[in-house]
Amino acid sequence: MHNMNLDFLFHPRSIAIAGASATENKFNAGLKFLEGLLAFGYRGKIYPISPGGGEVMGLKIYKNIKDIPGQVDYIISAIPAQYTPQLVADASCKGVKAIHFFTSGFSEIESQEGEKLQKEIIKLTRRSGIRIIGPNCLGIYCPAGGMTFNPDISKQSGPVGMISQSGGNAAHCIHEANSRGIYFSKVISMGNGADLNESDLLEYLIDDPDTKIITAYIEGVREGPRFLKALKTAARVKPVIIFKVGNSEVGAEAAASHTTAMAGSSRIWEGLLKQVGAIQVNSIEEMVDVTAALLHMPAPAGKNAAVIGIGGGASVIAADEFIHAGLELPRLSLKVRQGLLGIQGSEAGRIFKNPVDVNNFEGPEKFLLTVKAIEACDNVDFLVIQVAYDHFGLISASDKEFLTSVYIYSIVQLKDKVDKPIAIILHSFSSHATRKLAEESYNKLSEAGFTVFLSIPRAAVALSKYIDYCKWLKSHRTGTNKKAIK
After folding, report:
1. How far, in Å, CA of 486 to CA of 292, rounded?
2. pLDDT in tens, 372-431
3. Is 230:214 a contact under the CB 8 Å cutoff?
4. Prediction pTM value
């Protein structure tokens, strides 16, 4: 059943929540899903189900799904595993299209009982045509369909799709991305993938018009050749970012007891991902960093960076990190260095090689002239401006706030005045006050349309991977407009 249309999963007109009881004195997952959907503004009908009946949050609780008068498109199951076969049997009488099993206690626990239960529910759903998400997962987040597993995440839709074999990592990725102004079309926390697996979901996202960038947290795959084929197809039409874990022996064992996924060796995965043109990342933060570059930064022509900023120590750290990540820092030409000397007046307390330490740049006009002079260097493909916060020994907190605001203002003024791609790094915000400053700076720079990173090492790694991808894209995609990602 390849390339099926799974739109019905993301826009159900009615949802039944099995296990949403009115019990207030203990944690009730069904109730949490109900509260989340109501707070998120789900527009369809919601039917709580619990054998005790009664009422919860102004809604009638039905004792059985068969008692619900209207059509039920989708069920969230938050009941103990042993009761799920009966739920599936009742759902098939009701014409349900999909069941999301939050419930765990299936094949991931490595017991014969769990394995048997999972096989039983799959057999029942195959017969009735019901599709299963999970078991053992958070399910679906789709802002356009009003679907969520958490009321605190953004209601705004965006161009990023995510497949995750972990609920926790899906939640982390959404929060991390939202905090950086990046939004999702669809996120699927798929757990064990007993029915709909990573290949089904990847094939779906390839053709999904709302998804421009595909991200995935993968512990292992069930159908290797099929997944590889889907990955190859996906990478030719959209950027695909993969965070593959379970590469160590202990990690592989943890992956197996988490979602029963077969992990596979890291060397094999690394080779395969490179071959198909997928971007491999090593953390959720890195996944979001690379996504930010894809969304907001024009493709640099190559790996030659010019790093500009205040502070010699920060410049040396940046030089090491950038070289270590596989980027180049070409020495600026004599002509450019003489130009900088003309603008700045003296090299005392500054460095005009690369990285460039401009020290005190004396306002936006001089800063623009400095950046334009560096941009004119033929062997520079892109510019990186680093902003440190707790790097300055002689400056009081109030002075720091003033100087930082002038610096950020000067950077914002560069927008549309510089032709080469620019990335910004905010780093070394260690105290509570500077963390707040960095957050304000981040918001201003992001709103102005810059790609902003939150540490020097993170920027170096993400930029290197982004540029490698752009290079791969150039040689493997024909007639595709790079701006399609934007």
Report:
1. 10
2. 999 999 999 999 999 999 887 777 888 888 889 999 999 999 999 999 999 999 999 998
3. no
4. 0.92
Q: Is the peptide bond prior to 135 cis by the omega test (within 30 degrees of 0)?
A: yes
Exposed (0-12), middle (13-18) or buried (19+): which is 219, by Cβ within 10 Å?
buried
**What is 7-133's CATH number, 3.40.50.150, 3.40.80.10, 3.40.50.300, 3.40.50.720?**
3.40.50.720
DSSP letter at 330?
P
Compute the distance between CA of residue 293 and CA of residue 466 in angstroms, rounded to an integer.
7
Instruction: Check if the beta carbon of residue 132 is closer than 8 Å to that of residue 98.
Output: yes
CB 152 within 8 A of CB 174: no
**Dihedral, CA atoms, 158, 101, 28, 85, nearest 10 degrees?**
160
Q: Which class is domain 139-296?
A: alpha beta
What is the sign of the dihedral through the CA atoms of 302, 285, 192 and 185? negative
165 neighbors 191 (Cβ within 8 angstroms): yes
Sorted by where each begins, the domain ranges of the chain are 7-133, 139-296, 305-476
Fold that domain 305-476 belongs to in CATH: Rossmann fold (3.40.50)
